[in-house]
């Protein structure tokens, strides 16, 4: 079975870096096991996330949740410049209280069905000001420069969430997608514990199964079976890491047979269910 590759590794709770590429290699569909924010600074880039394609403008904010399958296509005639942040769930939880939750922006992006946020009026935006300070901080190599960047990132996250709460950001929709495929993607992700066979999906969406399979591959770059199976396995790992027993995780993510589930899990992640559970308990 063809697999999506996990790209990017987070050895700490938080990682922040600034990248400029004159030539960006074509990246295949992949996922991360952490959340990711990209602050797009300049270039010509299309970001494709879970079936939607976004043409970015300077200072757009791209929010990719963990396990979202995505890729980007960059025009190498101009440099691709961006700030990237990798964020673990634990990092977000460390700044979560009854009064605030820094992951709110990810939650709202999910409910708005959009991964790209745009600042409508840059000159009037406190969020834009915090982005400029964060961008400038990469030129600072003085005392505690890395810690200073982290402080500025937290300032950025506060402004981002305030702007999201007060609707001062545009959640960018895109016409460059197929509404039927988006409906199918949403249905699959909301029903990973249920029956998601080709014929069941075709009947549910009143569409020819052969046309649906061809259209899904054409629009997303992956087959229905590949997408469904790997989304189930990614959910299973989340459940295991949250303390759910392997047998329950098996059925909660739509597998009917524990042995089949166990083999598929080890093939995909390169570790057994027991290894995942043991690492979680350390």
Characterization of this structure:
The protein is α+β, with helices and mostly antiparallel strands. The protein has two domains: 167 residues, Regulatory protein AraC (Jelly Rolls); 103 residues, Homeodomain-like (Arc Repressor Mutant, subunit A, Orthogonal Bundle), CATH 1.10.10. Helices cover 44% and strands 18% of the residues. The strands form three sheets. The chain has a six-stranded antiparallel sheet. A three-stranded antiparallel sheet has the order 6-5-8, with no helix packed on it. Strands 1-3 form a two-stranded parallel ribbon. 28% of the residues are buried. GO terms for molecular function: DNA-binding transcription factor activity; sequence-specific DNA binding. Keywords: DNA-binding, Transcription, Transcription regulation. It comes from Sporofaciens musculi. This is Helix-turn-helix domain-containing protein. Pfam families: AraC_binding, HTH_18.
């Amino acid at each position: 079975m063809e697999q999506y590759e996990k790209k990017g590794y987070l050895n700490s709770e938080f990682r922040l870096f600034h990248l400029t590429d004159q030539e960006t290699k074509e990246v295949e569909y992949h996922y991360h096991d952490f959340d990711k924010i990209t602050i797009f600074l300049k270039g010509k880039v299309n970001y494709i996330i879970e079936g939607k394609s976004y043409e970015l403008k300077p200072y757009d904010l791209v929010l990719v949740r963990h396990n979202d399958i995505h890729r980007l296509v960059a025009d190498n005639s101009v440099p691709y410049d961006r700030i990237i942040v990798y964020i673990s769930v634990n990092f977000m939880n460390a700044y979560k209280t009854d009064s605030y939750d820094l992951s709110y922006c990810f939650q709202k992006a999910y409910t708005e069905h959009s991964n790209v946020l745009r600042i409508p009026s840059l000159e009037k935006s406190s969020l834009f000001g915090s982005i400029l300070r964060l961008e400038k901080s990469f030129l600072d190599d003085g005392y505690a420069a890395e810690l200073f960047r982290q402080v500025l990132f937290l300032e950025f996250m506060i402004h981002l969430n305030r702007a999201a709460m007060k609707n001062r950001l545009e959640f960018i929709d895109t016409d460059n997608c197929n509404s039927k495929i988006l409906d199918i993607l949403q249905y699959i992700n909301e029903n990973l514990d249920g029956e998601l066979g080709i014929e069941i999906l075709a009947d549910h969406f009143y569409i020819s199964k052969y046309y649906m399979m061809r259209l899904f591959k054409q629009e997303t770059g992956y087959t229905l079976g590949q997408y469904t199976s790997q989304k189930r396995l990614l959910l299973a790992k989340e459940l295991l890491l949250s303390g759910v027993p392997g047998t329950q995780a098996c059925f909660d993510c739509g597998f009917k047979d524990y042995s089949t589930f166990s083999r598929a899990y080890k093939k995909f992640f390169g570790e057994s269910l027991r290894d995942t559970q043991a690492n979680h308990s350390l």
